[in-house]
Batch of 3 targets.
Target 1
Amino acid sequence: MVNGKLFRCLLAVPLIAAALLAGAPSASAASLTRIPNFGANPSNLQMHLYVPNTVKPRPAVLVAVHYCTGSGPDFYTNTEFARLADRYGFIVIYPSVTRASKCFDVASPQALRHDGGSDPVGIVSMVRYVLQRYNADAGRVYATGHSSGGMMTNVLLGDYPDVFRAGAAFAGVPFGCFATTNGSEWNSQCANGQIIKSPQQWGNLVRGAYPGYTGPKPRMQLWHGTNDDVLRYPNFGEEIKQWTNVAGIGQTPATTDRPQPNWIRTRYTVGGTVQVEGISVQGGPHNVLVNGMAQYAIDFFGLSR
């Protein structure tokens, strides 16, 4: 059930800036296609797929996850990921929520366990469908999203480190921060940035989602606006604590720079590889995903090489 607080916050999440429309695919590009019957789908998600006219041999796969009140086609239209897929030859999956809130489930106990159920299971079914049908590279599967999609990016990497090599979460919260046990989709404490844990506690939440997993840890890129009034800015620091701990590294960045005048980027490395990257957008609102940022995510994944 959607409570009043969630409804107000949904209204506070308009479509991503209209300026992004300039980056949408041209009429001559490949089209977005609805895929039915893609596999296990306990929460009745819809799957939309964008396959460029030219893809690389054994292409990479990107899952691009929409914000609350949105849809896969909305995220396709209002972000640059499909245009970048045309340029670099990867495939993009756009999941869509069908429940009334149009928010992804990042709160239920089922959603926060490997193969536990709900939306993550359906999204991973979409990935497996693409890997099989398009001979895609299982070693190059990535996730990104904004707001509810940024939260789901954290959940997907926590639940399925065996599936996702890296993620880029825009205006999200840490894995497990939104957890509820009463069926609510909304956690006000987390949204307001009031849930503070140690790096070890945050890391334990991720490790507890898939007990016994000993494989490679996914890399994570995190974005947040300092003026986010929906998912407050303290969540950014808590995400950094979590994913650096999962990676087994400390809280001191290896480098700090400013790719743009109002961005502060911190990088945390393992053996010379950037394992966690945080970009703080000074003065940035909740709708932090704007024109040009998607390229940084694609670069972080290594898809532009």
Target 2
Amino acid sequence: MHDVATTKILIQKLRDDGWSGLLCDVSFCQKLEIPIPDMRSFYVDYIRSRREDETSVGHHYQYDVFTLNNRFSEQTTELLILCNSLDPRDSFKSFKLDDVCLLATKFYPSDFSDQERENLRYQLRHYQTDVVQNPDFHNLSTVAALCRKLVESKRTKDYHLIDRLIGLILTLPVSTATTERAFSAMKLVKTRLRNKMEDEYLRDCLLIYIEKEKALEFAIDTLIDDFSAKKRRRVDLK
């Protein structure tokens, strides 16, 4: 997160002071005979319909492209910082009991009841003495390794709430990436000309598009046979 913060500062300096110089330094376009767009003209988004208040090409490249605020918002940044409180690296140097409790309370309220959130604090006190200060756990470098070590040492029963929270943290990258892929695919599948597509049909199209590698394993002839065998068709599909 420190790297993200410094990157935001450097990008802002590029926008404010170095943008004109950057455009002058882009010389490969002339060498490769690539047409340079007019920075004062309207920027057209071919996925969405063009509107009268479209921003200019220069504004799009200078501000819309070089932005991390949407990807690393304050809420996302806080979530990553709180997740770091369970990182076992450097002998649990980042461990903070209050941050772990805040993580469960603020970002996972439906996964822990009020009573469980109270019990989590008591478990963390024992965890701090039993695990954080235990030399056997000081050589761990990832949260996944910590999760495996808790299972191997049979401490998951004593710290079942902490184990649940660690499991939620481990699934966070997968769930986030899947959601982002789904929204990216939706922009390509449900365009302006297909805005009346029903939810079930849209869901089926997105599933095939997102899992395109898996979809290639199915034989087209087999799908046609199964579709034809469901009921009698007016036209012979074979």
Target 3
Amino acid sequence: MFLTGIGTVFQWLDPIAAALGDPDLKAQVMEALEDNPQYLAYVLMGISAITIAARLRSVGKA
């Protein structure tokens, strides 16, 4: 659900930015991630932690 939420927000980023007067916001976000890859690494570590916790939870129920 977390990844779906991130995907939905990223999908709606361009229309919201255009309405607010900044049509290149998505490109600016992508450029910031390319310039600072540690942010992307932090996001991926968070996703990994959530996935591992979910797997351990399902193993604990069995």
